[in-house]
Structure formats: structure tokens, C-alpha cells
Amino acid sequence: MNVLHMINRKKHGQALTEEEISSVVMGYTLGEIPDYQMSALLMAIYFQGMNEEETLALTRAMIHSGEEVTLEGISGYKVDKHSTGGVGDSTTLVLGPILAAMGLKLAKMSGRGLGHTGGTLDKLESIPGLSVDLTVEEIIEGTNAIGMVVVGQTADITPADKKMYALRDTTETVDSIPLIASSIMSKKLAIHNDALVLDVKVGDGAFMKDVAQGEELARTLVAIGSSFGRDTYALISSMEQPLGSRIGNSLEIIEAIEALKGNTDTALFQVVKTLATLLVKGKTGEDEGTIERRIHEVVASGAALKKFQEFVAFQGGSPQVVEDYSLLPQAAHSVEVPALKGGHVAKIPAEAVGNIARDLGAGRKTLDDELNLGAGIHILKRVGDAVAEGEALAVLYGDDPQALNTAVGEYQQLVEISGAAVEAAPMIHGVIHEQSR
Ligand code: URA
User: Fold this and answer.
1) Helices 303-314 and 288-300, axial angle in degrees (round to 10)
2) Best of 58, 158, 207 to mutate for ligand 1, by most ligand atoms within 8 A of CB?
3) What is the SS3 assignment for 29-69?
4) Which residue among 117, 163, 184 is best mutated to probe the pocket of ligand 1, counting the most ligand atoms within 8 A of its Cβ?
5) In Å, how far are 20, 27, 168, 372 from 48, measured between CA atoms?
């Protein structure tokens, strides 16, 4: 393998072969290729892109760098879901119990939050007693018995991606579609599910800032999935304003429980319903209207909420949180954010709101930071809502009164209020599915 030759060819826009890609990924994972050469190659890929064969070869090489999880022992239709990251996004915690109540199986490996985006594992750990560290046997037992578990990564999946992602993060080469797509799909395909749904976020709080970029990423993700024989669906959804109205760990547990109790007239539920419909349709072939009716039925009957309680109890958590939110961690103080003027809320920029929540203790600046699980933001007025001067736009939760004071001023500055009526942007921009090849 001649890495310099590869960098030079990619620099001039030529395609790399499968053998070259596989050996450079393996060489880098084993420490035989130095960071500076890999950085140069990644930057050349960033500018020149990769064709479909190269992107597939990169995905395959990253999968082969580590272990694969077969999920053998779990019976039924096994599904997985991935979000490209957002603010106030507790989708998994609503989607999982609904799918479980409809007979699908979700053994989900989730991650922690970093930066302005939250992580499902952190949210779940705000439930007293709940553990996200299950053995493989427990994952199989819980998924078979209940229909869902949510755990941290159990096997050493895609070590090449771990190393390359860290390098991309420090060399400004994250936002490249072939690199993002192969990174996400290698992790998802290393776990052998029957179907996969990807929630590709676009807008202020997302990697992809506009719908055209989001569509391109979604198409690339679906093409990779279907080439590997996985039924893959992608939803392109808006991350202009936070998805749910609560941002923060225990606050997002409350948001998810409220949705499962029937608070379904929300952007969060719309996204959940669309994701669930895609996966259920893949299994049953029913028409969308029938599936939507069934989704509402499992919520209205309490079946989905019961699944949530069973899954929480199986993982050692207290299922009583569903009835008593005071069992969840609480911040020491709360403060309302009064609107500086009357009108209609025109903009709640997701990334900046996520950063405020993070600064109140809901998120981390570095991987070692400790979270304040009760901290965060409850948005009372969403985009399009009318607000009077002095009326509360949101309630902020935190332990440090001074940080709360600062956050009130920041929130007032970043939320735009318009004199004219405002319509919220559509939540769903499109769906992409391709028959597996
Ligand atoms: N998420 C990933 O897992 N990888 C990327 O490259 C970007 C987002």
C-alpha cells in the first residue's frame, strides 16, 4: 500500500479501489498509518468526495475493523433507529414502547450527549436505579420479553470509525456526506437488524443546514443500507426549533412519558409516528392510515406506556416515575423567562437553545463533565405561538442562580418575536426508501 500515492490520486479527484480503502482503514486502526497522512487523505476526500463504490468500501472496511452483533436469540422483526442528532429529541423513548406494543423488537444501542445535542443514555440514567449496562444475555431476554431495551455499546463495534471520527473532529472534516454516511452506517450495519430507520435532521441545530443537503445524506444512507440487504428508510425532519418542548435529561423523560400518556398533538409525536409507520409498514405491509390508527390505539389504551414501565423496570429503574415525576432528579431552582415584547414567536434557534441547556448543566462541554440531570429548559411558547409582553416564554431549571440569570437574558435575546403572525416550518421534509438490493 502506498498511502502517498492514494492521497495524491484522491487529491486529483480519482477514485480509490476497494483494496486501497480496506488497507488504509486497517492500517490506520492498527496504528501503522500516522494521523497526519490519514488527515491529508480525509481532507482530500472532503474536497473530492467519494463515489458510491468507494463509500460502500469505506463502510465495509469500518465494519470489518471490529466486532459484529448478530442479535441471534432475539425472535421476531428486529428494528433499529438512528437520529443524526438534535435538541429536545426524546424520539427513541416514545418510539420504542410504541413499536414494542405493536410487536416489533428494538434492542437499541444508544450514545451519550455531547455539545448542544442530548444523548439517550444520559436521559435514561436520570430514572432512579436504571442501568444501561446489560449483558448480551440480558439484552436478548429483555427484548424477547418486553420488545425493547436501550443500552450502551456492548461490543467493540467499528474501532476504525471511533479513531477516524476523533481525527475528523479535530481536522474540520466532519461535514462530508460520504464520511458521515459511512461512519453512521458502519455502526448501524455492524448490528444485524432486519430494518433500520434514520432520522436525518436539517436546520439550525443539525449538521445538515438545508433540506437539499439533508436529502443527499438521506439518499446516501439508504443506498448503503439497501446495498447491505437491510431494509433502510430515512426521514428528513426539521431541527430549526427544538423537537420537544423540554430540553434536559429528566425533563426529556417527562416529555416522553407525556407523549405516551396521549400528548400526541406535538412535533415530537409527528416524528415518532412517521418513523413508526415506516418500520411497521416494512413488517406488515399495511396501509399508512391503518398503521397510524394502530399507533394511536396503543397510546390511547395505555399499552405503550405499560411497555415503557416494563422496560424501565427490566433495566432496574423505578416504573413509578410515570405517575410521580418528583422521583426524577430536580434542579434546585427554576426561573421563568418573560417575553420582552408581545407578538408571535418567530424563531427559537435549536443550537443556541441547546447550548443554554448545556450551560445550565444538562449537557457536557467535555466527555468528563458531570451532568445536572434535573437542569434544562421547558419551552412554553413554540414557533407560531402568540405571546404577550411579560408572559413566560420558557422555564429554566438549574442549581446556580447566577447561571440561571445569565441564561434568562440569553434566551430573551435569541428568541425572535414578530409583530405579524408566523407559521412554523413543516416538521417533515420527506421520506426516502429504496428496495434492498
Ligand atoms: N454521526 C456519526 O456517527 N458520524 C458522523 O460522521 C457524523 C455524525
Assistant:
1) 70
2) 207
3) HCCCCCHHHHHHHHHHHHHHCCCHHHHHHHHHHHHHCCCCE
4) 184
5) 17, 22, 16, 43
Catalytically annotated residue among 187, 283, 381, 433: 187
**In this predicted model, what pLDDT tens digit does every residue of 245-298 receive, in sequence order?**
999 999 999 999 999 999 999 999 999 999 999 999 999 999 999 999 999 999
Please confirm, yes or no, whether 245 is among the known catalytic residues. no
Alpha helices for 69-146 (secondary structure H): 91-101, 120-124, 136-145
Q: Which residues line ligand 1 (CB under 6 A)?
A: 84, 165, 174, 179-180, 183-184
Instruction: State in Å: Cα 180 to ligand 1 middle.
Output: 5
197 Cβ partners below 8 Å, 6+ apart?
A: 79, 80, 81, 82, 232, 233, 234, 235, 275, 278, 279
Reported as half-sphere exposure (CB side, CA atoms, 13 A), residue 433 has a value of 14
- What is the reported pLDDT for 355? 94
Full-model pTM = 0.94
Of 119, 96, 97, nearest in space to 108 by CA = 96
- Angle, vertex CA 17, rays to CA 2 and CA 66, nearest 5: 85
> CA–CA separation, 64 vs 70, rounded Å?
14
Buried b (16+ CB within 10 A) or exposed e, 74-111: beebbbbbbbbbbbbbbbbbbbbbbbbbbebbbbbbbe
Which residue minimizes the CA distance to atom 5 of ligand 1?
180
| Strand order from edge to edge, sheet including 416-418 | 386-387, 343-347, 416-418
Q: Where are the alpha helices (DSSP H) in 285-342?
A: 288-300, 303-314
**Residue that wins the pLDDT comparison between 85 and 228:** 228
Model pLDDT for residues 125-169, shown as the tens digit of each residue: 999 999 999 999 999 999 999 999 999 988 789 999 999 998 998
**Is residue 437's pLDDT more than 60?**
no
pLDDT tens per residue, range 319-370: 999 999 999 999 999 999 999 999 999 999 999 999 999 999 999 877 778 8
Q: How far is CA 369 from the centre of its chain?
A: 20
CA–CA dist 266, 33 (Å, integer): 49
User: Exposed, middle or buried by CB within 10 Å (0-12, 13-18, 19+), for 325?
Assistant: middle
